[in-house]
Each structure stands twice: as C-alpha cells, then as structure tokens.
Amino acid sequence: MAPGATGHGRQEGGAVASAGRAGSGGAPAPQPGGPSSPLAVRWRRPGWRDPRLLVGLVLVGVSVGLGAWAVGTAGRTVAVLAAREPLVVGRPLADQELVVREVRLADAELLYLPAATELPGDLVVTRAVGAGELVPVAALTAVADIGLREVAVDASGPLASTVVEGSLVDLWFVPEPSAEQPVPVPRELAPGLEVAQVSLPAGALAVGSGATVHVMVPVADLPAVLAALAADGSIQVVSVPAGS
Question: Largest CB tally within 10 Å, which of 93, 121, 167, 223?
C-alpha cells in the first residue's frame, strides 16, 4: 500500500474513534425542533392576600352570623293577647276578657293583638274567638263598622242546652191563630245569629222558659225582628248544630 494512502486511513480512523468517544461519554447534541422537557412547578403556601382565602373567610363569617341570628330568633318570644273566655261578635272588648300569652311565632306582633295595645272602647271582633285562642288583628274592627246590633229576645219556650254564649241560633216567629189562619205558619226571621248572652230569670236553676237570649242581629234584619217582637205571637230560638 502506498505511504500516502496509509496516512489518510489513519486520519479517518482517528476521526471515527473520536466520534465514538463523543457519543458514549459526552452529552448528545440537542436536536433542533424536538420536544422540550416540562418545567417543574413548585407549590407555594397561600398567603393572607390570596383571594381564595379571603373569600373562604367571608363565607365562614356569614354562615356563623346567620346561624346565630336563627338561634336568637327561634328563642325570642312575643307577648300577645288571647281570649280568657269566648269573645262574642259585636260586643266591645274588655280587659277582663283577655289574658297575655308569650308565643314564638314569626310575625306574631303583626298577626295577633299585642299585649301592649291600649284597647279603644269601640273595638269588637268580627268573628267568634274561642277561649284560649289568640286574638287575630284581622278579626277586629270598630263597632260602627260591623253592621250588627244586640237585641234581647224573650224565649217563648224552653231553650236547648246548646244555646250558650258564642253559639249560633235561628230566630223564628209563630203568629197567633186567627179565623183566617187557624193553624199558624211559622216563618224564619233571621238565620245564624250569634248569642251574646243568655240571661235567666231570678231564682231559675236551669235554662228554660222565661230565659232572655241576647243575639247579634244584622242591621238589614232589624226591621223584621223588631216587628215580630211587637206582634201577637211567639219567637222561637232554635239552636244551630255546630259545624252547620
């Protein structure tokens, strides 16, 4: 082999060896356009200025406040008035008919008569209020606006045991027999009247003949009732069954 060729071969061999050593021991050369390694993100503890922490604190505070308000409201009582005895429609309210009750009802001061209310002399109920029942504000009005008048009726016959204060009765008129009408025909004067009071004659031991029944009569029915009281005949007080 020629000496020049031999020298050229040694140079090529040295270049190949150098390339091999570089590939095994050194870092590979970066490839242009290849994927890069993701950068590591270090977790940091949130500080006092972190918006998420501030929002969480606000929500906790609101929840605690609402819970305290709900507990305080549930334990608060309101003094309102209740009926000590049955309240009759159209009769002015009196202090001795009422008693104070402590209740835990929402808007109780708006729905029922507050205990601190000074009762006017013409305040009446528009519907019957039973004993122990709270007095609703919606059932109160002035006596001039109710359209009822109290009329005393002397019962011609025995009264039913259910005719008591606060009950309902019908008034019937039975005329005296006449030549034209030997068998009188009763007629109804006023239905569903509330009994304001039952007065017994002195010395009577039970409700019976001779009792006087005070009923609340609508103004529109007053002419017929008053005319019957002045006419020849009898007025019958008929009890209305409860729930009718």
Answer: 93
Are 184 and 176 in contact by the 8 Å Cβ rule? The answer is: yes
* Token digits of residue 229: 């009281």
Answer yes or no: pTM beyond 0.70.
no
- Burial tier of 160 (Cβ tally within 10 Å: 0-12, 13-18, 19+): middle
**Closest residue by Cα to residue 170 from 184, 189, 152:** 189
Residue pointed to by tokens 């708006």: 110
How many Cα atoms sit within 13 Å of 89 on the Cβ side?
A: 21
Length reported for the chain: 244
Cα separation of 237 and 156, whole Å?
A: 8
**CA 151/CA 124 separation, integer angstroms:** 16
Q: What CA–CA distance (Å, rounded) separates 90 from 142? A: 9
Sequence-distant (6+) residues with CB within 8 A of 121 are 92
Instruction: Of 155, 156, 183, 186, give the one whose Cα is nearest residue 173.
Output: 186
In angstroms, rounded to a whole number, what is the distance separating the alpha carbons of residues 93 and 200?
23
CB 68 within 8 Å of CB 103 = no
Query: What is the tens place of the pLDDT at every residue in 67-124?
Result: 666 655 555 788 899 999 888 888 888 889 999 998 887 777 788 888 888 888 888 8
The pLDDT tens digits of the residues spanning 113-129 come to 888 888 888 888 888 88
In sequence order, what are the residues at sequence separation of 6 or more whose Cβ sits closer than 8 angstroms to the Cβ of residue 212?
Answer: 152, 153, 154, 155, 198, 199
Let me know: does 151 contact 217? Beta carbons within 8 Å. Answer: yes
State both tokens at 221. Answer: 């029915």
